[in-house]
Amino acid sequence: MSQASEASLSHAVGLVPTMGALHAGHLSLCQRARQENATVIVSIFVNPLQFGPTEDYQRYPRTLDQDRQLCEQVGVDAIFAPTAEEMGVGNRKAGGAGGAEDNFTLSLTQVVPPLNMTSVLCGSGRPGHFQGVATIMTKLLKVVQPDRAYFGQKDGQQLAIIKRLVQDLNFSMEVVGCPTVREASGLALSSRNQYLTPEQKEQAAVLYRGLQRAEQVFQAGERLARALVEVVRSELAIASVALEYVELVDPTTLLPLSRIEDEGMLTIAARIGSARLIDNIILRSRQPIVAIDGPAGAGKSTVARQVAAILGLLYLDTGAMYRALTWLVLHLGVPLEDECAIAEIVSNCQIELAPSDNLEEPVRVWINGQEVTQDIRSKDVTSNVSLIAAQPTVRSSLVQQQQRWGKRGGLVAEGRDIGTHVFPDADLKIFLTASVNERARRRQQDFQHQGQADISLEQLEQDIIERDWKDSNRNVAPLQKAADAIEIQTDGLSIAQVTAEIINCYNEHLPKR
Known about the structure:
Blueprint: H1 2-5, E1 13-18, H2 24-36, E2 39-44, H3 64-73, E3 78-80, H4 103-106, H5 115-118, H6 129-144, E4 148-152, H7 156-168, E5 174-178, H8 198-204, H9 206-219, H10 225-236, E6 242-249, E7 263-272, E8 275-284, E9 289-293, H11 300-311, E10 314-317, H12 318-332, H13 339-348, E11 351-354, E12 364-367, E13 370-371, H14 379-389, H15 392-405, E14 411-415, H16 418-422, E15 428-433, H17 436-449, H18 457-473, E16 486-489, H19 495-509
Helix pairs in contact: 6-7, 9-10, 11-19, 12-14, 13-15, 17-18
């Protein structure tokens, strides 16, 4: 478990909630959690609250011994497999749905997500389902208290509802959505695939083919929902599937879309034999996003500016935003530990960025109308910015600003959590790194160029080690390499060489852009 022992994982706890019958899709969530947390917990609980009276609660696959073996193989630290009694639903009649005659449900305190999210898509034919999901999920999060919880994109409606639940109930944790894992045919992995015969599995692959066909039409320029939905219906018309719905919705709010302006989730549900299958695909109408992460002194900002200029994209200097806020806090004399005061400052401040005329200089930065381009590079700001950035309210406010800029894409962003947290769906993720000695040497040259007092390499190396520890061990969005990022070691490379390597990665991974 070498990855988990690295200091960069801090003491974070990752939770992978499941109903058991684990497959490769679940294991991919465990592996992602293993990369990003010191401790990984898998919960296994077949939740009676989310099954309707005619659904498969009694015969839902239960394979706890096999699940334990699989968890051990991927380095899970603990399995939480409570009984129904331990979860407070022991008197629940199996197969109930929370209807009017369900006395147990009527006497149980439940979590009720917004009706406009639970009454659509799968919720329209499964009354009480997402209420049951939300209730048990709230219990799990309360008991385990993870820093992050991992869910697959296949259950897109569930993912959106849980994100809303965590936001509305003020859970201090992050919900991480992970890509759908598929069989070679394209069929999304699901515990219910066990119900399918080999012939039915072949038939079921048509769901993803229909979504892929719609994506091709979308990439060709089609944006209207009715046209994209019709493409999927036409593909499924030739297959022996009982289609429940094909709809285009906003992936965050689940509201129906008539056309895609920014992004949409094209989602589908169908029955094949006794199995009810769901799938979806995210369609984005935006220019590419390039996320460049890495530790302090790795050359991210200079490289990002040059990459943006060459590709004709916007350079979004997120680090400058955190530095600007840190400068303001110091300028106002607010104690760094006064999170309430800092929360008020960040909620009311206005940060503006503009490109510099000179690529070798930082972007120009204003906060509350005052230009602070040079001030934010001071040693005081540099030594304190990590403390400010670690505060949840600061991150939440600035990330919202960054994500608004990234809504339509067409940008290059750099920082320490861009590819993992701010833009987890970035088209290209780069992780720039360099040795401590190399980064200290670069920092010394920067200080000399700025006319600041000469600082020894030894002191700068110690400062960088401490900065790395702070960035890597903060509870909120610690510095780490995204699972799908391309790592570039920059020791001995010039800025031009690093830039050229990233451009090559861009052209290789985004040949059609």
